[in-house]
Structure to design on (1036 residues):
């Protein structure tokens, strides 16, 4: 099925003599050719040339391309589903759902740039009579930064990989994309890359608007260091994301790395809700912790439970956990790392295990739950570290003051969740306020997994959850990662970008002389 | 007048036994006490505590504080004007103008946060009936990041110093500010700091919302490294800004440094406009190059002139330059560095001087103009380096192709300017398009100096002009440097920040279910 080639704009290329194997449920897949330096240069050069055209494409034109990608991905049919299941170990329902999300994201961004208000047009008109100096006409809008390098994520072989959220956002902004494919799903990557290539050709995009390169960490490094690259998107481990961040900052021209590095997504259960809703909360947490074998960035790895009710709660949670079916982890490396983390939890951090899921034949697993008290937790910062997999740690506390202490000690998180009866919530106003300091999204009476793709989503929290809490990698605002404002002063109408013309021909929302108008 | 103390929230403090002298036109000013580590810690600790209160203050409350600062600065009257003139060597008109700008900026940000739409509220309402999963209620808004360290700029002793644009933007956002005062104007800093302290007390702000510390580079480093600091604003040299940027990225928790490091702000004169408007253009450029002794970040240091008409143009420019009165540079260090740069231009880069302004008694100077051709310019990247002072380099070119080559070779700039007859401008569409890649603001038929403070301003261009071209340090959008989005999921109305309440009680512009409403 797959050829193992790199996709460089409109061609395929296999210059390296060595190849690597993809690992699948049924053994290995075809040999994949890692990109050579000349292939990396070719992809980046093409991206740079494509940018000079693509950045000026209208929203309508980019929308046609994005929708064509979604169509071509759907046209891959069963082949894509089987390949992705085979490489990721994820069940069919999940992969079908993820394909749905991937195509929805592409179509959402298509509509978003077609509508056009995302450029944040601001117009301050001239006032030649202003004293002491005349006021010039200044108009500003967002423009794309240039070629973007996207690292694909092993835990989202479709929705945060080759044609995932980062790629969709960058292409929507007007930035060509060069994907560094993931060694864990190179065949899935090739299929999707060829679908994008087909869509690009069909919709008359410039050669180089999209490329996809195979390879290990060195290929990734070369892409980040390439002078043509203007931004990097990454979803994965702290170690991986931080290394790219450091590398990008050491470039002669530093560039932003938007690394989403996960977190433990603390949940705080208030005494009142434990009394009334213990079972419902336990069930929700059990499902959230074990969703996708606990391999989601918003997986709740830390649950603060009132000391008074913890015994019963732990029992209820264990009961709920025991109904979770064994699940396959993404790959052996991740499975082994999960085992190591569990071992650490038990033997180095001396955490008691209140429920231990049977470990099936590798890489099949079931969730586990640990327990500790607040004092021990506050003493050992390692307990804040993410265990990538279906594990959560219960931490017992006695009063709200304890939680305030926690809220001001925890490192940066993607999310923070509070369970409480609604009428009692005002009691926890201070806690909710303090949690804003450490998280990008606060959730009440629901679990953090299941990240809604919408305008209001913020998926990105203070370091080390991400490298830049000012941006989101999910939702329409993700486009802002790949743009910068440019102001035009004293330009006659015909030379301005259409978004800034008098009369608002694009009918977009604009801030004109201080008022939003359409 | 001044005491040489550090301002730490509501107290003054002089713990160090050593002092340094301020240099003034009439000699030196009182001994200033550099901040000790314990004073740095005290200021940051107070800032951290103040943040917990101040970040929740309403727009109205913050506006009262910002306006009180402007009032207290004006109440300093002649003392401030004399002190700033004395320390900076800048003439009275300039200092009075700069005080006006400083107070306008403070009042502009007051109105901006009072109006309130700056929080970019986004509301996506719930849809419990959505299939396959119910849609949650998610609402997002910008919140302040935390304490901000502001480095004051020697070339703007008021408007980009103690109570300048960075401080105004950070305080408006809800971030406490700790200022690192500039050794070139410590007395001016102390006067303004005490005015801010007075305003803070009078308007019942939390102790620590503002502090100001004296010291050299080491004090600055300690502030950037302090764990409580969440962002840094800097206006100054490339060397200084880049060093802070590197330092901030090496922190255990990296933070953004918004460094505006200046540029050469190229001007492109088209043949048609040289024919018709040579004299007017020469006069505008002469005035722009020599404005404030050439010590503005938007000073045009590079002018591309058609080879055919350069002789006459150079003559006209020299004539215009000869009418410029001698000006005093900011301080001896800058004056000497200007002399070194001029020497380099002449003897290392072998650039011919077409007009050499007489060097008066140091630090008084008059502008100078060099000339070279495009070939030599493209060969020597040093010719792109900023000469901080009233110097500009004419570069001759023969055709538009030459300019496209330049537009794709030049490093990042704050601005790029084109002079052309309006009816001929469409001929230069490609050039204007390419210039977007290298500059933050494009200007037609006017000079880059004189940066309008408005919504549409973009003062920030690609590296090395700034460390982050996605942000501006001038205009209302400067507030965005000190905020990040937080999403609230499933929150009942009463627990949401007021900006996100149903019914829009603050009457701000919000993006509600995809539409802007007020």
């Amino acid at each position: 099925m797959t050829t193992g080639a790199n996709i460089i704009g409109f061609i395929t290329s296999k210059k390296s003599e060595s190849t690597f194997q993809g690992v699948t449920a049924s053994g290995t897949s075809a040999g994949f050719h890692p990109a050579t330096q000349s292939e990396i240069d070719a992809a980046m050069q093409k991206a740079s040339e494509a940018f000079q055209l693509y950045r000026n494409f209208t929203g309508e034109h980019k929308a046609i391309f994005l929708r064509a990608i979604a169509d071509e991905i759907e046209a891959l049919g069963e082949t894509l589903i089987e390949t992705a299941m085979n490489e990721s170990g994820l069940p069919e329902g999940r992969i079908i759902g993820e394909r749905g999300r991937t195509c929805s994201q592409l179509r959402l961004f298509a509509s978003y740039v077609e509508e056009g208000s995302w450029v944040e047009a601001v117009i301050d008109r001239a006032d030649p009579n202003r004293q002491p100096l005349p006021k010039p006409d200044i108009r500003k809008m967002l423009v794309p930064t240039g070629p973007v390098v996207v690292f694909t994520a092993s835990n989202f072989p479709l929705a945060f990989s080759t044609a995932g959220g980062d790629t969709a956002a960058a292409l929507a902004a007007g930035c060509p994309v060069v994907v560094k494919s993931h060694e864990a799903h190179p065949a899935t990557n090739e299929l999707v890359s060829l679908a994008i290539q087909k869509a690009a050709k069909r919709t008359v995009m410039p050669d180089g608007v999209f490329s996809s390169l195979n390879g290990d960490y060195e290929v990734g490094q070369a892409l980040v260091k390439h002078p043509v690259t203007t931004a990097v998107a990454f979803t994965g481990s702290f170690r991986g994301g931080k290394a790219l961040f450091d590398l990008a900052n050491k470039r002669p021209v530093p560039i932003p790395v938007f690394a989403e590095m996960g977190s433990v997504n603390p949940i705080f259960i208030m005494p009142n809700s434990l009394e009334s809703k213990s079972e419902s909360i336990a069930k929700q947490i059990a499902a959230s912790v074990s969703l996708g074998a606990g391999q989601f960035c918003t997986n709740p790895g830390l649950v603060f439970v009132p000391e008074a009710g913890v015994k019963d709660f732990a029992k209820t949670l264990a009961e709920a956990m025991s109904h979770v079916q064994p699940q396959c982890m993404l790959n052996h490396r991740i499975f082994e790392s999960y085992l190591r983390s569990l071992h650490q939890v038990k033997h180095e951090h001396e955490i008691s295990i209140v429920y231990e899921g049977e470990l099936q034949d590798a890489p099949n697993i079931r969730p586990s739950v640990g327990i500790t008290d607040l004092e021990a937790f506050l003493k050992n910062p390692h307990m804040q570290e993410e265990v990538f997999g279906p594990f959560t740690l219960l931490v017992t506390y006695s009063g709200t003051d304890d939680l305030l202490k926690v809220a001001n000690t925890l490192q940066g998180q993607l999310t923070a969740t509070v369970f409480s009866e609604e009428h009692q919530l005002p009691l926890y106003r201070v806690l909710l306020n303090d949690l804003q300091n450490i998280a990008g999204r606060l959730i009440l009476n629901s679990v953090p997994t299941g990240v809604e793709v919408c305008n209001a989503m913020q998926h990105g929290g203070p370091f080390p959850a991400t490298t830049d809490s000012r941006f989101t990698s999910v939702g329409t605002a993700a486009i802002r990662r790949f743009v910068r404002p440019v102001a035009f002063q004293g330009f006659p109408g015909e030379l301005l970008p259409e978004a800034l013309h008098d009369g608002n021909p694009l009918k977009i929302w604009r801030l004109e002389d201080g008022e939003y108008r359409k």
User: Anything to note?
Assistant: The CA atoms of residues 157 and 265 of chain B lie 22 Å apart.
